[in-house]
Automatic annotation (TrEMBL):
Ranges for domain Helicase ATP-binding: 131-301
Protein species of origin: Mastacembelus armatus
Annotated SMART domains: DEXDc, HELICc
GO (cellular component) term, any one: cytoplasm
Protein name as catalogued: RNA helicase
CDD domains linked: SF2_C_DEAD (cd18787)
EC code: 3.6.4.13
Length: 485
């Protein structure tokens, strides 16, 4: 539906952003598929930006990205790779289970697991669960991408290990942020639904307890700073009674200043025989170094990401001189071929806002996703797009990762992906348009080139992947059609 409210809202946004320092722009999807802006002058400052700079606010915010992933995901990310297991004691047998029954869970927990709709353990759970539930307890470092079942696995381990008759904390779980802690808490509540004797408390800032009190809940989940305070300064928790210590999202944790140190200080207060479990979506060296300090004598489980490939993708580029020309080229493409749903990537929030406005004016149903939106709002936009309520999703870099919208067969790089030094960001390029073998549906990628520099970037991307990116003449409608089909 064409509407001018978009353009007007964008203008207002930009005018306001230029004049007011402390302004955050929130965006809320409306019923009619366009968006309305709500301004909130009490929130943190949103920076104004030039069209040539990538969004400052769009810097990768790992915690927000991780939260977004959790919010938009409603089932397992399947993975056909084999898990790699490194056992502390290579001579001990390696168990893996194909069913939850084999784990001899408490009936209340089995009930909880099935109640969540899980039929069988996920790939990582097949190996991780027997290790975590073994007697004596074993330490574990596990790495696999988001959505492969790590949270569900350690929640099940915590619930299995607590003794509900003991009214004191027995499991501690630290998460990088308040919101992530709440998400994990929800899983504990769902899985423990039929086990009401086990109680949970959140060690998060703002949850103020009376001095001198002792917690009765068996599971404490929270952020490292508050958890540390509760163990040492306030002594609400007796760390010597802890049986299981979980450190979730280690890669996100180390990105936050102070968290590493606080987590290590908590860990040092725990008894030697406490089971230490650490989870991470990625495993770069810094994560690994941290993991080794948190988890002594670990078993290690890794599940490689499924590789994305460009093999089933047709890649084109279009030569233009300005963003207006790029927009015109886009309109020509839309005029020539039927595009069910497309994602369009822009370098800056400003361009994304402008383009969304222009497309909307042309009659497209557009959704806009950009870094300054709150995570809940981003999740809502993605869900609407997934449900087909909007046909075009315009987004900035920050939203490129993590969102899997399988039905999208057309990806348009309105701006080519570059890193902060202006070099081609091959990884992001692959991630935006690549497909895993499983979803090997054919796809179409169109790259807009508007300067010598962007042509060079395109050439470097082409060389990197050793896959030809063909030129497309968008003034020739016949050519577009011929090439696409
Ligand atoms: N065995 C299973 N069978 C079916 N669904 C599952 C199973 N285990 C987990 N899930 C579901 O899959 C989704 C991802 O699981 P989970 O959150 O545990 O993954 P994760 O690896 O911890 O991801 P993240 O790091 O994003 O939290 C959730 O919706 C969860 O309910």
């Amino acid at each position: 539906m064409a509407t001018d409210s978009w353009a007007q809202a964008v203008d207002e946004q930009e005018a306001a952003a230029e004049s007011i320092g402390n302004l955050q722009i929130k965006e809320k999807p409306e019923e009619n598929g366009t968006a309305a802006y709500v301004t909130d002058s009490t929130s943190a400052a949103a920076k104004t930006e030039g069209d040539n700079n990538a969004d400052d606010d769009d810097k990768e915010d790992k915690a927000a990205q991780s939260l977004l992933n959790k919010m938009i995901r409603n089932n397992l990310v399947s993975n056909t790779n084999q898990v790699e297991v490194l056992q502390r004691d290579p001579n001990s047998p390696l168990y893996s289970v194909k069913s939850f029954e084999e784990l001899r869970l408490k009936p209340q927990l089995l009930h909880g697991v099935y109640g969540m709709g899980f039929n069988r353990p996920s790939k990582i759970q097949e190996t991780a669960l027997p290790m975590m539930l073994a007697e004596p307890p074993q330490n574990l470092i596990a790495q696999s991408q988001s959505g492969t079942g790590k949270t569900a696995a350690f929640v099940l381990a915590m619930l299995s290990h607590v003794d509900p008759n003991n009214k004191y904390p027995q499991c501690l779980c630290v998460s990088p942020t308040y919101e992530l802690a709440l998400q994990t808490g929800k899983v504990i509540e769902q899985m423990g639904k039929h086990y009401p004797e086990v109680k949970l408390v959140y060690a998060i800032r703002g949850n103020k307890l009376q001095r001198g009190m002792k917690l009765q809940e068996q599971i404490v989940i929270g952020t490292p700073g508050t958890m540390l305070d509760w163990c040492s300064k306030f002594k609400f928790i007796d760390p010597k009674k802890i049986k299981v210590f979980v450190l979730d999202e280690a890669d996100v944790m180390i990105a936050t200043q102070g968290h590493q140190d606080q987590s290590i200080r908590i860990q040092r207060m725990l008894p030697k025989n406490c089971q230490m479990l650490l989870f991470s979506a990625t495993f770069e060296e810094s994560v690994w170094n941290f993991a080794q300090r948190i988890v002594p004598d670990p078993n290690i489980i890794k599940l490689k990401r499924e590789e994305e490939t460009l093999d089933t993708i047709k890649q084109y580029y279009v030569l233009c001189n300005s963003k207006e020309e790029k927009f015109q080229a886009l309109c020509n493409i839309y005029g020539a071929i039927t595009i069910a749903q497309a994602m369009i990537f822009c370098h800056t929030r400003k361009t994304a806002g402008w383009l969304a406005g222009e497309l909307s004016r042309e009659g497209h149903q557009v959704a806009l996703l950009s870094g300054e939106m709150q995570v809940e709002q981003r999740a809502a936009v993605i869900e609407r797009f997934r449900d087909g309520k909007e046909k075009v999703l315009v987004t900035t870099n920050v939203c490129a990762r993590g969102i899997d919208v399988e039905q999208v067969s057309v990806v348009i790089n309105f701006d080519l992906p570059v890193d902060k030094d202006g070099n081609p960001d091959n990884e992001t390029y692959l991630h935006r348009i690549g497909r895993t073998g499983r979803f090997g549906k054919r796809g179409l990628a169109i790259n807009m080139v508007d300067s010598k520099m962007s042509m060079q970037i395109l050439n470097r991307i082409q060389e990197h992947f050793n896959k030809k990116i063909e030129k497309l003449d968008t003034d020739d409608l016949d050519e577009i059609e011929k090439k696409m089909y």
